[in-house]
Amino acid sequence: MITLDRISKTFPGTDIPAVDRVSFQVNAGNICVFVGPSGCGKTTILRMINRLEEPSSGRITVNGQDIMSLDPAVLRRTIGYVIQQIGLLPHKTIEQNVSLVPELLNWPKSKIKARVTELLVLVGLDPGTVGRKYPHQLSGGQSQRVGVARAMAADPPIMLMDEPFGAVDPIVRIHLQDEFLRLQQHLKKTICFVTHDINEAVKMGDYLIILNMGRLIQMGTPLEVLTEPADDFVLNLLGDDRGVKILDLTRCETLMDRDRNFPYNPDSCLIQSVKPVKIALELMMKKNIDQVGVCKGERIVGVLTWNSIKEHISRVSRDRP
Amino acid sequence: MGFISFIQNNSGLVLEYTLNHISLVLTVLVLSLGLWIITGLIISRHDRLAGAVISLSNILFCIPSISLFGLFMAVPGLGLGRNTAVLVLVIYAMMPLVRSVYLGVKSVDYFVMEAGKGMGMTPSQILFRIQIPMAWPTVFAGIRVSVVLITGIATMATFIGEKNLGRLIHQGITRGNADMIIAGAVIVSLIALLLDYIMGRIEKKVISPGLRYRTND
Questions:
Q1: What order do you get walking across the sheet with A57-62 strand by strand?
Q2: Cα dihedral A218, A223, A226, A228 in deg (nearest 10)
Q3: What is the ipTM of this complex?
Q4: Which one-letter DSSP state was computed for residue A34?
Q5: Residue A121's pLDDT is what?
Q6: In chain B, whose CA is at the least distance from the CA of A134?
Q7: Structural domains for chain A
Q8: What CATH number belongs to B7-207?
Q9: Which parts of chain B have pLDDT scores under 70?
Q10: Which B residues 138-167 touch A at CB under 8 Å?
Q11: How far is A151 from chain B (nearest CA, A)?
Protein backbone atom coordinates (compact mmCIF):
# COMPACT_ATOMS: atom_id res chain seq x y z
CA MET A 1 0.00 0.00 0.00
CA ILE A 2 1.26 3.46 -0.94
CA THR A 3 0.04 6.57 0.86
CA LEU A 4 0.72 10.16 -0.11
CA ASP A 5 -0.12 12.76 2.51
CA ARG A 6 -0.33 16.40 1.37
CA ILE A 7 2.59 16.08 -1.00
CA SER A 8 3.90 19.27 -2.61
CA LYS A 9 6.87 19.77 -4.87
CA THR A 10 8.26 23.07 -6.06
CA PHE A 11 11.28 22.82 -8.33
CA PRO A 12 14.15 25.21 -7.59
CA GLY A 13 13.86 28.43 -9.55
CA THR A 14 10.09 28.29 -9.96
CA ASP A 15 7.26 29.80 -7.92
CA ILE A 16 4.41 27.59 -9.06
CA PRO A 17 4.39 24.16 -7.43
CA ALA A 18 4.63 21.23 -9.87
CA VAL A 19 2.65 19.18 -7.37
CA ASP A 20 0.30 20.94 -4.96
CA ARG A 21 -0.92 19.26 -1.74
CA VAL A 22 -1.83 15.92 -3.28
CA SER A 23 -3.08 13.12 -1.03
CA PHE A 24 -4.23 9.68 -2.02
CA GLN A 25 -3.76 6.03 -1.29
CA VAL A 26 -3.02 3.12 -3.62
CA ASN A 27 -4.25 -0.20 -2.28
CA ALA A 28 -2.28 -3.41 -2.67
CA GLY A 29 -2.98 -5.31 -5.87
CA ASN A 30 -4.50 -2.33 -7.70
CA ILE A 31 -3.48 -0.50 -10.83
CA CYS A 32 -3.74 3.19 -10.10
CA VAL A 33 -3.43 5.41 -13.16
CA PHE A 34 -2.24 9.00 -12.92
CA VAL A 35 -3.70 10.82 -15.91
CA GLY A 36 -3.61 14.41 -17.10
CA PRO A 37 -2.07 16.73 -19.68
CA SER A 38 1.71 17.20 -19.85
CA GLY A 39 3.01 19.30 -16.99
CA CYS A 40 0.20 18.22 -14.66
CA GLY A 41 2.68 16.66 -12.23
CA LYS A 42 1.90 13.00 -12.84
CA THR A 43 5.48 11.95 -13.60
CA THR A 44 6.81 14.04 -10.70
CA ILE A 45 4.44 12.27 -8.30
CA LEU A 46 5.55 8.89 -9.65
CA ARG A 47 9.23 9.78 -9.27
CA MET A 48 8.69 10.88 -5.69
CA ILE A 49 7.48 7.42 -4.76
CA ASN A 50 10.92 5.90 -5.48
CA ARG A 51 12.73 9.04 -4.38
CA LEU A 52 14.04 10.05 -7.78
CA GLU A 53 12.54 13.37 -6.67
CA GLU A 54 12.18 14.55 -3.10
CA PRO A 55 8.92 16.25 -2.06
CA SER A 56 9.15 19.82 -0.76
CA SER A 57 6.61 18.95 1.89
CA GLY A 58 4.34 16.10 2.88
CA ARG A 59 4.86 12.46 3.67
CA ILE A 60 4.95 9.32 1.54
CA THR A 61 4.66 5.91 3.14
CA VAL A 62 5.05 2.50 1.53
CA ASN A 63 3.50 -0.29 3.57
CA GLY A 64 3.39 2.00 6.55
CA GLN A 65 7.06 2.99 6.37
CA ASP A 66 8.07 6.59 5.71
CA ILE A 67 10.23 6.38 2.58
CA MET A 68 12.43 9.24 3.76
CA SER A 69 13.73 6.91 6.47
CA LEU A 70 14.99 4.40 3.88
CA ASP A 71 18.18 4.38 1.81
CA PRO A 72 17.04 5.50 -1.69
CA ALA A 73 19.01 2.76 -3.48
CA VAL A 74 17.65 0.05 -1.18
CA LEU A 75 14.09 1.42 -1.56
CA ARG A 76 14.37 1.45 -5.37
CA ARG A 77 15.46 -2.19 -5.51
CA THR A 78 12.11 -3.13 -4.00
CA ILE A 79 10.12 -1.07 -6.51
CA GLY A 80 9.97 -1.97 -10.19
CA TYR A 81 10.49 1.00 -12.50
CA VAL A 82 9.57 1.16 -16.19
CA ILE A 83 9.96 4.27 -18.33
CA GLN A 84 8.82 5.10 -21.85
CA GLN A 85 12.41 5.35 -23.09
CA ILE A 86 13.04 1.95 -21.49
CA GLY A 87 16.72 2.70 -20.88
CA LEU A 88 18.08 -0.78 -21.52
CA LEU A 89 21.84 -0.93 -21.03
CA PRO A 90 23.12 -1.09 -24.64
CA HIS A 91 26.41 -2.79 -23.71
CA LYS A 92 24.73 -5.67 -21.93
CA THR A 93 22.79 -8.58 -23.36
CA ILE A 94 19.08 -8.96 -22.71
CA GLU A 95 19.82 -11.62 -20.08
CA GLN A 96 22.27 -9.30 -18.31
CA ASN A 97 19.78 -6.44 -18.47
CA VAL A 98 17.06 -8.50 -16.83
CA SER A 99 19.53 -9.78 -14.17
CA LEU A 100 20.40 -6.27 -13.08
CA VAL A 101 18.35 -5.89 -9.90
CA PRO A 102 18.82 -9.51 -8.73
CA GLU A 103 22.57 -8.92 -9.10
CA LEU A 104 22.34 -5.75 -7.02
CA LEU A 105 20.55 -7.86 -4.41
CA ASN A 106 23.33 -10.49 -4.58
CA TRP A 107 21.14 -13.40 -5.59
CA PRO A 108 23.05 -16.63 -6.32
CA LYS A 109 23.92 -17.06 -10.02
CA SER A 110 21.77 -20.14 -10.58
CA LYS A 111 18.71 -18.47 -9.09
CA ILE A 112 19.24 -15.40 -11.32
CA LYS A 113 19.56 -17.55 -14.43
CA ALA A 114 16.36 -19.45 -13.69
CA ARG A 115 14.50 -16.24 -12.90
CA VAL A 116 15.62 -14.56 -16.15
CA THR A 117 14.40 -17.50 -18.22
CA GLU A 118 11.10 -17.52 -16.35
CA LEU A 119 10.58 -13.79 -16.87
CA LEU A 120 11.40 -13.76 -20.57
CA VAL A 121 8.86 -16.52 -21.09
CA LEU A 122 6.35 -14.61 -18.96
CA VAL A 123 6.57 -11.49 -21.15
CA GLY A 124 6.36 -13.59 -24.30
CA LEU A 125 9.99 -13.67 -25.45
CA ASP A 126 12.04 -16.74 -26.32
CA PRO A 127 14.92 -16.91 -23.79
CA GLY A 128 17.02 -19.02 -26.17
CA THR A 129 17.09 -16.53 -29.04
CA VAL A 130 16.43 -13.17 -27.37
CA GLY A 131 18.48 -13.71 -24.20
CA ARG A 132 21.88 -13.39 -25.88
CA LYS A 133 20.95 -10.49 -28.11
CA TYR A 134 21.87 -6.87 -27.44
CA PRO A 135 19.22 -4.17 -27.07
CA HIS A 136 19.87 -2.64 -30.51
CA GLN A 137 18.89 -5.95 -32.13
CA LEU A 138 15.35 -5.85 -30.73
CA SER A 139 12.18 -4.25 -32.10
CA GLY A 140 10.40 -1.54 -30.13
CA GLY A 141 7.78 -3.95 -28.82
CA GLN A 142 10.39 -6.50 -27.75
CA SER A 143 12.38 -3.81 -25.94
CA GLN A 144 9.28 -2.72 -24.02
CA ARG A 145 8.72 -6.31 -22.95
CA VAL A 146 12.32 -6.55 -21.76
CA GLY A 147 11.80 -3.30 -19.86
CA VAL A 148 8.82 -4.80 -18.05
CA ALA A 149 10.67 -8.09 -17.41
CA ARG A 150 13.65 -6.18 -15.98
CA ALA A 151 11.40 -4.21 -13.64
CA MET A 152 9.77 -7.42 -12.39
CA ALA A 153 13.04 -9.32 -12.03
CA ALA A 154 13.34 -9.30 -8.25
CA ASP A 155 9.57 -9.73 -7.90
CA PRO A 156 8.93 -6.31 -6.37
CA PRO A 157 5.47 -5.92 -4.83
CA ILE A 158 5.23 -2.40 -6.27
CA MET A 159 5.79 -1.22 -9.84
CA LEU A 160 6.00 2.33 -11.13
CA MET A 161 5.31 2.63 -14.85
CA ASP A 162 5.78 5.91 -16.70
CA GLU A 163 4.04 5.68 -20.07
CA PRO A 164 5.48 2.19 -20.50
CA PHE A 165 3.72 1.54 -23.80
CA GLY A 166 4.05 5.08 -25.14
CA ALA A 167 6.80 4.52 -27.67
CA VAL A 168 5.32 1.67 -29.71
CA ASP A 169 2.79 1.77 -32.55
CA PRO A 170 -0.93 1.56 -31.69
CA ILE A 171 -1.35 -2.10 -32.65
CA VAL A 172 1.60 -3.27 -30.54
CA ARG A 173 0.46 -0.98 -27.74
CA ILE A 174 -2.98 -2.59 -27.52
CA HIS A 175 -1.35 -6.01 -27.60
CA LEU A 176 1.07 -5.11 -24.78
CA GLN A 177 -1.74 -3.58 -22.70
CA ASP A 178 -3.85 -6.73 -23.02
CA GLU A 179 -0.93 -8.98 -22.13
CA PHE A 180 -0.01 -6.84 -19.17
CA LEU A 181 -3.57 -6.92 -17.81
CA ARG A 182 -3.58 -10.70 -18.23
CA LEU A 183 -0.29 -10.95 -16.27
CA GLN A 184 -1.58 -8.62 -13.57
CA GLN A 185 -4.60 -10.85 -12.99
CA HIS A 186 -2.42 -13.39 -11.22
CA LEU A 187 0.62 -11.27 -10.28
CA LYS A 188 -1.51 -8.79 -8.30
CA LYS A 189 1.19 -6.14 -8.10
CA THR A 190 0.53 -2.71 -6.69
CA ILE A 191 1.01 -0.52 -9.72
CA CYS A 192 1.23 3.22 -10.29
CA PHE A 193 0.83 3.90 -13.98
CA VAL A 194 1.34 7.26 -15.68
CA THR A 195 -0.27 8.13 -18.99
CA HIS A 196 -1.64 11.14 -20.84
CA ASP A 197 -3.98 8.91 -22.86
CA ILE A 198 -7.43 8.77 -21.23
CA ASN A 199 -8.35 5.65 -23.20
CA GLU A 200 -5.32 3.82 -21.87
CA ALA A 201 -6.13 5.11 -18.37
CA VAL A 202 -9.72 3.83 -18.51
CA LYS A 203 -8.56 0.50 -19.88
CA MET A 204 -5.68 -0.14 -17.49
CA GLY A 205 -6.86 1.46 -14.27
CA ASP A 206 -8.65 0.03 -11.28
CA TYR A 207 -8.49 3.60 -10.03
CA LEU A 208 -7.90 6.84 -11.85
CA ILE A 209 -6.24 9.90 -10.36
CA ILE A 210 -6.89 12.90 -12.56
CA LEU A 211 -4.41 15.72 -12.25
CA ASN A 212 -4.19 19.22 -13.65
CA MET A 213 -1.53 21.83 -12.93
CA GLY A 214 -0.21 19.89 -9.98
CA ARG A 215 -3.58 19.44 -8.31
CA LEU A 216 -5.61 16.33 -7.82
CA ILE A 217 -8.91 17.03 -9.60
CA GLN A 218 -10.73 13.74 -9.20
CA MET A 219 -10.13 10.16 -8.17
CA GLY A 220 -12.28 7.10 -8.48
CA THR A 221 -12.87 4.01 -10.55
CA PRO A 222 -13.02 4.58 -14.31
CA LEU A 223 -16.78 4.11 -14.26
CA GLU A 224 -17.21 6.58 -11.42
CA VAL A 225 -15.13 9.17 -13.24
CA LEU A 226 -16.95 8.60 -16.53
CA THR A 227 -20.42 8.79 -15.05
CA GLU A 228 -19.73 11.65 -12.69
CA PRO A 229 -16.93 13.86 -13.94
CA ALA A 230 -16.00 16.39 -11.26
CA ASP A 231 -15.73 19.43 -13.51
CA ASP A 232 -15.37 20.72 -17.05
CA PHE A 233 -11.70 19.85 -17.13
CA VAL A 234 -12.42 16.18 -16.49
CA LEU A 235 -15.33 16.31 -18.94
CA ASN A 236 -12.99 17.63 -21.63
CA LEU A 237 -10.33 15.09 -20.79
CA LEU A 238 -12.81 12.24 -21.15
CA GLY A 239 -13.61 13.30 -24.70
CA ASP A 240 -16.74 13.33 -26.83
CA ASP A 241 -17.34 9.60 -26.63
CA ARG A 242 -17.88 9.40 -22.89
CA GLY A 243 -21.13 7.48 -23.32
CA VAL A 244 -19.53 4.87 -25.56
CA LYS A 245 -16.66 4.47 -23.08
CA ILE A 246 -19.20 3.88 -20.33
CA LEU A 247 -20.75 1.10 -22.41
CA ASP A 248 -17.35 -0.55 -22.55
CA LEU A 249 -17.12 -0.57 -18.75
CA THR A 250 -20.70 -1.48 -17.88
CA ARG A 251 -21.64 -5.13 -17.66
CA CYS A 252 -24.77 -6.35 -19.42
CA GLU A 253 -26.18 -7.53 -16.08
CA THR A 254 -26.16 -3.97 -14.76
CA LEU A 255 -28.57 -2.69 -17.40
CA MET A 256 -30.61 -5.79 -18.16
CA ASP A 257 -34.27 -6.18 -17.32
CA ARG A 258 -34.67 -9.25 -15.10
CA ASP A 259 -38.41 -9.52 -15.28
CA ARG A 260 -39.11 -9.37 -18.95
CA ASN A 261 -39.83 -12.63 -20.69
CA PHE A 262 -37.66 -13.62 -23.55
CA PRO A 263 -38.38 -16.57 -25.78
CA TYR A 264 -35.45 -18.95 -25.42
CA ASN A 265 -33.99 -19.80 -28.72
CA PRO A 266 -30.50 -21.22 -29.01
CA ASP A 267 -29.94 -19.31 -32.25
CA SER A 268 -31.10 -16.02 -30.82
CA CYS A 269 -28.73 -13.34 -29.69
CA LEU A 270 -27.46 -14.42 -26.33
CA ILE A 271 -24.70 -12.71 -24.44
CA GLN A 272 -23.00 -13.52 -21.17
CA SER A 273 -23.99 -11.28 -18.26
CA VAL A 274 -20.39 -10.22 -17.45
CA LYS A 275 -19.67 -9.00 -20.99
CA PRO A 276 -19.56 -5.24 -21.55
CA VAL A 277 -22.71 -3.59 -22.92
CA LYS A 278 -20.62 -2.49 -25.91
CA ILE A 279 -20.57 -6.10 -27.14
CA ALA A 280 -24.36 -6.39 -26.80
CA LEU A 281 -24.74 -3.18 -28.77
CA GLU A 282 -22.52 -4.51 -31.53
CA LEU A 283 -24.68 -7.64 -31.65
CA MET A 284 -27.88 -5.58 -31.94
CA MET A 285 -26.50 -3.48 -34.76
CA LYS A 286 -25.13 -6.48 -36.61
CA LYS A 287 -28.43 -8.38 -36.48
CA ASN A 288 -30.65 -5.29 -36.71
CA ILE A 289 -32.61 -6.10 -33.54
CA ASP A 290 -33.63 -4.16 -30.42
CA GLN A 291 -33.01 -6.66 -27.64
CA VAL A 292 -30.72 -9.52 -26.70
CA GLY A 293 -31.07 -12.26 -24.11
CA VAL A 294 -28.52 -12.15 -21.31
CA CYS A 295 -27.24 -15.47 -19.99
CA LYS A 296 -25.29 -16.82 -17.07
CA GLY A 297 -23.78 -19.95 -18.50
CA GLU A 298 -26.60 -21.70 -20.32
CA ARG A 299 -29.37 -20.12 -18.26
CA ILE A 300 -31.12 -16.97 -19.43
CA VAL A 301 -31.24 -14.35 -16.66
CA GLY A 302 -32.62 -11.24 -18.31
CA VAL A 303 -33.08 -9.09 -21.38
CA LEU A 304 -31.05 -6.12 -22.48
CA THR A 305 -32.94 -3.68 -24.66
CA TRP A 306 -31.81 -0.89 -26.92
CA ASN A 307 -34.02 1.50 -24.98
CA SER A 308 -32.47 0.71 -21.61
CA ILE A 309 -29.00 1.37 -23.05
CA LYS A 310 -30.13 4.67 -24.53
CA GLU A 311 -31.79 5.74 -21.31
CA HIS A 312 -28.74 4.84 -19.26
CA ILE A 313 -26.39 6.89 -21.42
CA SER A 314 -28.79 9.78 -21.58
CA ARG A 315 -29.10 9.71 -17.80
CA VAL A 316 -25.37 9.66 -17.03
CA SER A 317 -24.13 11.96 -19.77
CA ARG A 318 -26.77 14.64 -19.50
CA ASP A 319 -25.22 18.08 -19.85
CA ARG A 320 -24.73 19.39 -16.39
CA PRO A 321 -26.04 22.85 -15.43
CA MET B 1 66.04 2.19 -51.56
CA GLY B 2 69.04 3.82 -49.91
CA PHE B 3 67.46 3.99 -46.48
CA ILE B 4 67.32 0.18 -46.25
CA SER B 5 71.03 -0.14 -46.78
CA PHE B 6 71.52 2.66 -44.27
CA ILE B 7 69.59 0.63 -41.70
CA GLN B 8 71.56 -2.53 -42.60
CA ASN B 9 74.91 -0.75 -42.28
CA ASN B 10 74.00 0.85 -38.94
CA SER B 11 71.83 -1.87 -37.50
CA GLY B 12 73.20 -1.66 -33.95
CA LEU B 13 72.63 2.08 -33.72
CA VAL B 14 69.20 1.94 -35.35
CA LEU B 15 68.13 -0.86 -33.01
CA GLU B 16 69.27 1.07 -29.94
CA TYR B 17 67.41 4.19 -31.06
CA THR B 18 64.27 2.20 -31.90
CA LEU B 19 64.18 0.45 -28.52
CA ASN B 20 64.76 3.76 -26.75
CA HIS B 21 61.95 5.30 -28.74
CA ILE B 22 59.53 2.50 -27.93
CA SER B 23 60.39 2.45 -24.24
CA LEU B 24 59.86 6.22 -24.00
CA VAL B 25 56.48 5.98 -25.76
CA LEU B 26 55.33 3.08 -23.59
CA THR B 27 56.39 4.81 -20.36
CA VAL B 28 54.49 7.91 -21.38
CA LEU B 29 51.47 5.88 -22.45
CA VAL B 30 51.18 4.02 -19.15
CA LEU B 31 51.54 7.19 -17.07
CA SER B 32 49.16 9.18 -19.29
CA LEU B 33 46.44 6.55 -19.26
CA GLY B 34 46.50 6.34 -15.48
CA LEU B 35 46.69 10.06 -14.89
CA TRP B 36 44.39 11.43 -17.57
CA ILE B 37 41.65 8.81 -17.45
CA ILE B 38 41.27 9.47 -13.72
CA THR B 39 41.32 13.22 -14.38
CA GLY B 40 38.65 12.79 -17.06
CA LEU B 41 36.46 10.79 -14.69
CA ILE B 42 36.84 13.35 -11.92
CA ILE B 43 35.93 16.32 -14.10
CA SER B 44 32.95 14.45 -15.56
CA ARG B 45 31.41 14.75 -12.10
CA HIS B 46 32.38 18.38 -11.49
CA ASP B 47 31.17 20.56 -14.31
CA ARG B 48 32.88 23.73 -13.14
CA LEU B 49 36.23 22.02 -12.89
CA ALA B 50 35.70 20.46 -16.32
CA GLY B 51 35.70 23.79 -18.17
CA ALA B 52 38.94 24.90 -16.52
CA VAL B 53 40.76 21.58 -16.99
CA ILE B 54 39.78 21.19 -20.63
CA SER B 55 40.76 24.81 -21.42
CA LEU B 56 44.11 24.22 -19.74
CA SER B 57 44.69 21.05 -21.76
CA ASN B 58 43.88 22.95 -24.97
CA ILE B 59 46.34 25.71 -24.13
CA LEU B 60 49.11 23.25 -23.25
CA PHE B 61 48.47 21.34 -26.45
CA CYS B 62 48.96 24.52 -28.49
CA ILE B 63 52.47 25.22 -27.16
CA PRO B 64 55.10 24.14 -29.72
CA SER B 65 56.74 20.97 -28.44
CA ILE B 66 60.28 22.13 -28.92
CA SER B 67 59.73 25.14 -26.67
CA LEU B 68 58.08 23.02 -24.01
CA PHE B 69 61.06 20.64 -24.00
CA GLY B 70 63.33 23.66 -23.70
CA LEU B 71 61.33 25.21 -20.86
CA PHE B 72 61.17 22.10 -18.71
CA MET B 73 64.83 21.32 -19.33
CA ALA B 74 65.62 24.54 -17.48
CA VAL B 75 63.60 23.53 -14.41
CA PRO B 76 65.93 22.47 -11.57
CA GLY B 77 65.73 18.74 -10.95
CA LEU B 78 64.53 17.88 -14.45
CA GLY B 79 67.35 18.88 -16.78
CA LEU B 80 68.36 16.90 -19.84
CA GLY B 81 67.07 13.39 -20.34
CA ARG B 82 64.29 10.94 -19.81
CA ASN B 83 62.38 12.67 -16.97
CA THR B 84 61.83 15.87 -18.87
CA ALA B 85 60.93 13.97 -22.05
CA VAL B 86 58.35 11.88 -20.21
CA LEU B 87 56.85 14.91 -18.48
CA VAL B 88 56.44 16.91 -21.69
CA LEU B 89 54.94 14.00 -23.63
CA VAL B 90 52.50 13.25 -20.80
CA ILE B 91 51.36 16.88 -21.06
CA TYR B 92 50.76 16.47 -24.78
CA ALA B 93 48.67 13.36 -24.21
CA MET B 94 46.43 15.28 -21.82
CA MET B 95 44.19 16.97 -24.39
CA PRO B 96 43.05 13.93 -26.41
CA LEU B 97 42.75 11.66 -23.36
CA VAL B 98 41.01 13.95 -20.86
CA ARG B 99 38.68 15.24 -23.52
CA SER B 100 37.68 11.81 -24.82
CA VAL B 101 37.08 10.40 -21.34
CA TYR B 102 35.01 13.46 -20.40
CA LEU B 103 32.97 13.39 -23.61
CA GLY B 104 32.55 9.62 -23.45
CA VAL B 105 31.19 9.67 -19.92
CA LYS B 106 29.06 12.75 -20.53
CA SER B 107 27.46 11.45 -23.71
CA VAL B 108 25.95 8.38 -22.04
CA ASP B 109 22.19 8.40 -22.69
CA TYR B 110 20.35 10.16 -19.85
CA PHE B 111 17.56 7.61 -19.79
CA VAL B 112 19.96 4.68 -19.46
CA MET B 113 21.42 6.25 -16.32
CA GLU B 114 17.96 7.20 -15.12
CA ALA B 115 16.83 3.59 -15.51
CA GLY B 116 19.92 2.42 -13.61
CA LYS B 117 19.25 4.88 -10.81
CA GLY B 118 15.56 3.96 -10.72
CA MET B 119 16.47 0.30 -10.29
CA GLY B 120 18.58 1.07 -7.26
CA MET B 121 22.15 1.44 -8.55
CA THR B 122 24.38 3.63 -6.39
CA PRO B 123 26.29 6.51 -8.06
CA SER B 124 29.51 4.45 -8.16
CA GLN B 125 27.68 1.44 -9.63
CA ILE B 126 26.28 3.76 -12.31
CA LEU B 127 29.81 5.03 -13.00
CA PHE B 128 31.49 1.61 -13.22
CA ARG B 129 28.68 -0.49 -14.70
CA ILE B 130 27.09 2.03 -17.06
CA GLN B 131 29.09 5.18 -17.73
CA ILE B 132 32.59 3.74 -18.10
CA PRO B 133 31.65 0.71 -20.26
CA MET B 134 29.52 2.94 -22.47
CA ALA B 135 32.31 5.53 -22.74
CA TRP B 136 34.92 3.03 -24.01
CA PRO B 137 34.38 3.64 -27.76
CA THR B 138 35.03 7.37 -27.35
CA VAL B 139 37.87 6.80 -24.89
CA PHE B 140 39.60 4.38 -27.27
CA ALA B 141 39.39 6.89 -30.09
CA GLY B 142 41.25 9.30 -27.78
CA ILE B 143 43.81 6.68 -26.75
CA ARG B 144 44.62 5.85 -30.37
CA VAL B 145 45.07 9.50 -31.28
CA SER B 146 47.40 10.03 -28.34
CA VAL B 147 49.49 6.94 -29.13
CA VAL B 148 50.21 8.20 -32.64
CA LEU B 149 50.77 11.70 -31.32
CA ILE B 150 53.24 10.65 -28.62
CA THR B 151 55.21 8.49 -31.05
CA GLY B 152 55.62 11.46 -33.39
CA ILE B 153 56.41 14.14 -30.84
CA ALA B 154 58.87 11.82 -29.07
CA THR B 155 61.29 12.50 -31.95
CA MET B 156 61.66 16.07 -30.66
CA ALA B 157 63.02 14.75 -27.36
CA THR B 158 66.30 14.17 -29.14
CA PHE B 159 67.06 17.87 -28.53
CA ILE B 160 67.12 17.28 -24.78
CA GLY B 161 69.36 14.25 -24.97
CA GLU B 162 67.07 11.32 -25.75
CA LYS B 163 68.86 8.87 -28.04
CA ASN B 164 65.89 7.92 -30.15
CA LEU B 165 64.80 7.92 -33.78
CA GLY B 166 64.50 11.70 -33.69
CA ARG B 167 68.29 11.73 -33.65
CA LEU B 168 68.44 9.95 -37.01
CA ILE B 169 66.10 12.56 -38.48
CA HIS B 170 67.91 15.51 -36.88
CA GLN B 171 71.37 14.35 -37.89
CA GLY B 172 70.10 13.45 -41.32
CA ILE B 173 68.97 17.06 -41.73
CA THR B 174 72.24 18.58 -40.50
CA ARG B 175 74.33 16.26 -42.66
CA GLY B 176 72.04 16.48 -45.68
CA ASN B 177 71.67 12.69 -45.59
CA ALA B 178 68.24 11.89 -47.06
CA ASP B 179 68.53 8.12 -46.42
CA MET B 180 69.09 8.77 -42.73
CA ILE B 181 66.02 11.03 -42.54
CA ILE B 182 63.85 8.52 -44.36
CA ALA B 183 65.12 5.63 -42.20
CA GLY B 184 64.14 7.53 -39.03
CA ALA B 185 60.77 8.64 -40.39
CA VAL B 186 59.81 5.20 -41.71
CA ILE B 187 60.62 3.45 -38.43
CA VAL B 188 58.71 6.07 -36.42
CA SER B 189 55.71 5.57 -38.69
CA LEU B 190 55.92 1.80 -38.35
CA ILE B 191 55.99 2.05 -34.55
CA ALA B 192 52.94 4.33 -34.62
CA LEU B 193 51.09 1.95 -36.94
CA LEU B 194 52.02 -1.08 -34.85
CA LEU B 195 50.89 0.51 -31.57
CA ASP B 196 47.67 1.68 -33.20
CA TYR B 197 47.05 -1.84 -34.47
CA ILE B 198 47.60 -3.32 -31.01
CA MET B 199 45.24 -0.74 -29.52
CA GLY B 200 42.67 -1.67 -32.14
CA ARG B 201 42.88 -5.33 -31.11
CA ILE B 202 42.51 -4.45 -27.42
CA GLU B 203 39.59 -2.19 -28.30
CA LYS B 204 37.77 -5.09 -29.96
CA LYS B 205 38.17 -7.15 -26.79
CA VAL B 206 37.14 -4.41 -24.37
CA ILE B 207 34.17 -2.81 -26.13
CA SER B 208 30.86 -4.68 -25.85
CA PRO B 209 29.41 -5.97 -29.13
CA GLY B 210 26.26 -4.13 -28.07
CA LEU B 211 28.06 -0.83 -28.61
CA ARG B 212 30.07 -1.76 -31.67
CA TYR B 213 27.20 -1.31 -34.13
CA ARG B 214 27.40 2.43 -33.59
CA THR B 215 30.68 2.67 -35.44
CA ASN B 216 29.16 0.94 -38.45
CA ASP B 217 26.21 3.22 -39.07
A1: A19-26, A2-9, A57-62, A65-66
A2: -60
A3: 0.84
A4: E
A5: 94
A6: B210
A7: 2-240 (3.40.50.300), 246-316 (3.90.1280.20)
A8: 1.10.3720.10
A9: 213-217
A10: none
A11: 8
